Amino acid sequence: MGIVSPGFQGRPRSSAPDLPPGQYLTEDFPVLSAGPTPRVKLDTWEFVLTSETGAEYRWSWDELMGLPQDTPTVDLHCVTRWSKLGTTWQGVSLDTLLDGVDTGARYALAHSYGGYTTNLPLDDLRGGRAWVVHTYDGGPLPAEHGGPARLLVPHLYLWKSAKWVHGIRLLVDDRPGFWETAGYHDYGDPWREQRYQGD
C-alpha cells in the first residue's frame, strides 16, 4: 500500500527565480556610482597588483587581453535591493593574475581610477569566483558600468565589484574601503543580507 493517495501531484514548483532575501528582479542594469565616471584611455590603462611586501605586478591593456580569458555567466545583487540574473561577461580570472604571486596576505583592497576602494578577503578572489572583466553581453564594457574594466565578484553585493578597477593591494590586516568606512558591511553576502555593519 502506497503512502501517497492516488492522483496526488504535490505542490507545483514556483517559477519565481531564487533571489536573496529582500531583493527584487530587474531586467534593466541600473547605474549607481559614488562619483563622476572616469574616462580611462586604453593606451594608459593598467592593472597593478601589489603584494603586502610592496612587490608590484603590472599589466597593460594589451597584456591583459593576452591572458587566458573566461566567460562567466553570473547573477548580480545590488545592496539597493535589485538583482539581475544571467549576466554574461568576459575577462581574466583573479586566479590567473595571482598565479606566481608570493603572498601571505589574507585580505585585499581593490582600488579604482577615480579613488574608489573596497575591501575583500583574499580567499573570495580565488577559486574561480572573481574576475577583472572588460566585456559585457558581447560588447566592450560601457564606462557607466565600470569600463574599460571592472572587478567582478558576483557572490557578494555589487559594491564589492569595483568599477574602473586600477589595481588590488594585498594586505595582512583588513582595511575598510569607501562604503565600508561609511557604514556598509565589511563582507556583503547578499544571501545573509549583510548590507550594513551589524547585519
UniProtKB/TrEMBL annotation:
This is Sulfoxide reductase catalytic subunit YedY. Pfam families: Oxidored_molyb (PF00174). Transmembrane segments: none annotated. InterPro entries: OxRdtase_Mopterin-bd_dom, OxRdtase_Mopterin-bd_sf. It comes from Micromonospora sediminicola. Residues 35-179 form the Oxidoreductase molybdopterin-binding domain. Residues 1-22 are annotated as: Disordered. It comes from the Bacteria.
